[in-house]
Amino acid sequence: MPASFVGVADYGAFVVAILVFLAIPGPGNLALITSTGKGGIAGGLAATLGVIAGDQVLLWAAVAGVSALMAAYPAAFHAVQGVGALYLAWLGFKMLLAKPGAAPLLQLKAGHYFRQTFIITLFNPKAIVFYLAFFPLFVDPLQHQGIKTFGVMAGTIAGLTFLYGLAAVLLTWKLAKQLRDNPKISMVLQKAAGLFLIAFGVKLALSR
Description:
It contains 8 helices and no strands. The protein is mainly alpha-helical.
C-alpha cells in the first residue's frame, strides 16, 4: 500500500482524484466558461477564486463533521439539495429567457463572478459528494496529523484548482474572441447553458 504523506493516504492518488473531479462537466466548469465569456480573463479568474473559496468551505465543513450531522439528520441534506436545485434552475431560466441585446446575466464585475460561482460551488452536488464522502477516504487514520494533514489537503486542492481554472479561462478566452463577431452563436450558447443549468437543477431535486 502506498505510504502516506503528512497523513494523506496515497498522496499521488489524491492529486489524480482532484484533477478528475475538476474535469467532470458540471455547474462549476460552466460558471468558469460563462464568466470568462462575459467578463474576460478577469471575470474568469474571479470565478476561479469563487470555486476555490466554495471548495474550502465544503472541505472545512467536512473536517468539522458536517458529514456526520447530515447522516444523522437527512432532512438537513435534503434542504441543501432543495436550495441548490432552486438556485441552479432560477439561474438557468434567466439565461434561457434573456433577449438579444439585453443586459448580460453575469455583470462585468469581478466581485459578481466571485459571489455567483462561490454559491454555485457550495450547492454543486459533485463538490458536496467529494468533500462529504470521497474526501475523507484519503485521510490516513494511523498517521493523521490533525490540522496539518487537512492543511496540506486544502492547499493541494486550492493550488490544483487555480491551475485548472487558469488553463480553462485562457482556453475559453481564446475561443470567445472568435465568437464575438457573431452574437447569434453567443445567444445559442447562452440558451444551451441555461437549459443545462435547469436540467442540472431538476436532477438535483429528483435525487432528494
